[in-house]
Amino acid sequence: MALSKGDLKGRIISEMVAQGATATGEHSWVERLAEAIANAVVDEVTSNAEVVVSGGSSAGTYPVQ
Could you give phi then psi for residue 44, rounded to 5 degrees? Predict the structure, then answer.
C-alpha cells in the first residue's frame, strides 16, 4: 500500500469535520492544518520507517518507500 499525502489529508479533514470542525469559510484552518499534518506524517514514515523480513531469500531490513 502506497502512502498518499492527498488521501491522508482527506481522511484527516473527514475526522476533523466529524469532531465538529468547519472545513469551509474565510477563517477555517482545517484544510491547511490537515495538509501540514499529512505532509509531516508521510515524510516521517517514508524517511525513517523500516520493514523487517525475518526469513526466506528476502530476509533483511528494507526502507519504506
Answer: -65, -45
DSSP code per residue over 10-55: HHHHHHHHHTT----STT--HHHHHHHHHHHHHHHHHHH-EEEE-S
- pLDDT per position as a tens digit, 2-31: 789 999 999 999 999 999 999 999 999 999
Q: Does the global pTM surpass 0.70?
A: yes
| Cβ 65 vs Cβ 46: under 8 Å | yes
State the Cα–Cα distance between residues 1 and 7, nearest whole angstrom. 12
- For 15-41, letters b (16+ CB in 10 Å) and e give ebeeeeeeeeeeeeebeeebbebbeee
